[in-house]
């Protein structure tokens, strides 16, 4: 730890605190995620090891895919891992993204009364879509997509982060059984099962999730980017009870997007928020939409 100069805190998640650090020898700006690492808590330790392994696995697989096509890599690069046993903390060191995250970008737009342009939205859509397409083609589900996990570098290029809940699909299977993801970004098929589980009060069942769950979360993020609110509640009712939220997501259509945005853009986001996962648009199909495909670098 003495090799690093600690700077400002960048964010806080369920499993740790992310901080901007500078490596003293090289003066390289990095970020680290500080997590609990108690010796006698095997489950916590395993979660930390899983996060490190999943981050490395996702980066390695996507780096191979991208190198073959000479594309920009839209995933945060893991740079190292160490444990400080004196204070029972583990540190996952990653590349630093100086542009903050998509949540900060949305909040800044709201505060300043600005809106994103359709072109900029399509650019972000292409970047997230291409990284999701690479992940899904490589049989990896992110499983915790949200604006806080979409980072931006100094050139406003997207980098996906936080692969702690990601899962590798087994060969021949199109789903995983796992509890994962942030509640407000979970797909209706996941929330429906959660609601059923609560009512039946039996043993906790594993919940089936497919790559379509990532697309739903992607759609919620894109809705927020345009409307600066969640598709199923606004600032007036953001404290709605969990059961009411589930009922809205499962049974009601999302709110309408601002009508000054192009109809094709609004309809594309609606296709991401399709209730039926088998009918929901895929990452590959999103990239084939002409307005999204036009954002491919070099076009």
TrEMBL record:
Its EC number is 2.7.11.1. It comes from Streblomastix strix. SMART domains: S_TKc. InterPro entries: Kinase-like_dom_sf (IPR011009), NEK_Ser/Thr_kinase (IPR050660), Prot_kinase_dom (IPR000719), Ser/Thr_kinase_AS (IPR008271). Keywords: ATP-binding, Kinase, Nucleotide-binding, Transferase. SUPFAM superfamilies: Protein kinase-like (PK-like). Pfam families: Pkinase (PF00069). The keyword Cytoplasm does not apply. This is non-specific serine/threonine protein kinase. Signal peptide: none annotated. GO terms for molecular function: ATP binding; protein serine/threonine kinase activity. Coiled coil: none annotated. Residues 4-292 form the Protein kinase domain.
């Amino acid at each position: 730890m003495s090799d690093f100069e600690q700077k400002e805190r960048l964010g806080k998640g369920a499993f740790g605190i992310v901080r901007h650090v500078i490596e003293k020898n090289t003066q390289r700006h990095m970020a680290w995620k500080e997590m609990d690492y108690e010796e006698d808590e095997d489950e916590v330790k395993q979660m930390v090891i899983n996060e490190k392994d999943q981050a490395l696995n996702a980066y390695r697989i996507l780096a191979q895919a991208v190198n073959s096509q000479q594309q920009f890599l839209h995933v945060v690069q893991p740079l190292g891992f160490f444990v400080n046993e004196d204070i029972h903390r583990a540190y996952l060191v990653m590349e630093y993204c100086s542009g903050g995250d998509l949540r900060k970008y949305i909040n800044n737009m709201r505060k300043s009364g600005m809106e994103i342009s359709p072109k900029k939205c399509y650019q972000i859509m292409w970047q997230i879509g291409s990284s999701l397409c690479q992940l899904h083609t490589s049989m990896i589900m992110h499983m915790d997509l949200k604006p806080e996990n979409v980072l931006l570098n100094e050139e406003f290029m997207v980098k996906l982060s936080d692969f702690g809940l990601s899962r590798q699909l087994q060969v021949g299977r199109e789903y995983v059984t796992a509890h994962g993801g942030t509640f407000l970004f979970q797909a209706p098929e996941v929330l429906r099962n959660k609601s059923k589980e609560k009512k039946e009060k039996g043993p906790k069942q594993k919940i089936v999730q497919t790559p379509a769950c990532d697309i739903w979360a992607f759609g919620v993020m894109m809705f927020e980017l345009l409307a600066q609110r969640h598709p199923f509640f606004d600032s007036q009712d953001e404290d709605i009870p969990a059961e009411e939220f589930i009922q809205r997501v499962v049974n009601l259509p999302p709110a309408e997007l601002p009508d000054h945005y192009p109809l094709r853009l609004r309809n594309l986001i609606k296709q991401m928020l399709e209730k039926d996962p088998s009918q929901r648009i895929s990452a590959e199909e999103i990239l084939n939409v002409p307005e999204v495909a036009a954002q491919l670098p070099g076009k």
